[in-house]
Amino acid sequence: MKRLMSLAIAVAVLFSGAAVAEELKSGLEEGTGIGAFYVTKCAGAEEDGVAVGKNLCYRCKNGARPQVMVFTRSTDDKVVSLVKKLDAQIKKNEEAQLRAFVNMLGDSKDAASDSVKKLAATTKAENVPFVVPNEFENGPEDYGINAKADVTIIIANESKVVANHAVASAKDLDVSAVLSDLKKMLN
């Protein structure tokens, strides 16, 4: 009887953990249109014609091109790895005009700006702009970025969401799954 009870508790704990992981929804759902939102460029993409300090809508600048929007509160190694790989994909997919930009979220605009500049320096990405959204705490309101999500990634093409990835902890970010969805979109 004790074993049965222990097994039942273990199964309940296992399923409750799985349910919590599945419940973390953040960002726009697949098929949803991506709206405009304003950001301040802090670093990166020196060749994109946008000066550091300029406030603009990168989503609008990118138009209907394939793009990856990374919303992060973290500078974890997984985020660094993702940004480096996105930078390489932009170079590799010049013909498709792939774009990406990293939005740093935080409690204050200054703290987010400092963090995103450090992330830019760490990644040494050449083709990725690093920005702080005007709505810096949780990103643009109509994007539905979950305050509990460390990282939310929206992959879009023709102004619609193709894929979405979100994790409560950046350490759980599956970089290969993000790249797989990106490659599917580009093929």
Kindly name the structural category. alpha/beta
What is the count of DSSP helices, taking H or I runs of 4+ residues?
A: 5
Tell me, rounded to a whole number, the average pLDDT. Answer: 91
CATH architecture: 3-Layer(aba) Sandwich
Q: Any low-confidence stretches, pLDDT <50, length ≥5?
A: 4-8, 10-21
CATH class reads Alpha Beta
Number of strands: 7
CATH topology: Glutaredoxin
The neighbouring-strand order within the major sheet is: 2-1-5-4-3-6-7
Q: Tell me the number of structural domains.
A: 1
Termini distance? 55 Å
Range of strand content: 15-25%
For this structure, what is the CATH homologous superfamily? Answer: Glutaredoxin
Largest sheet at a glance?
7 strands, mixed
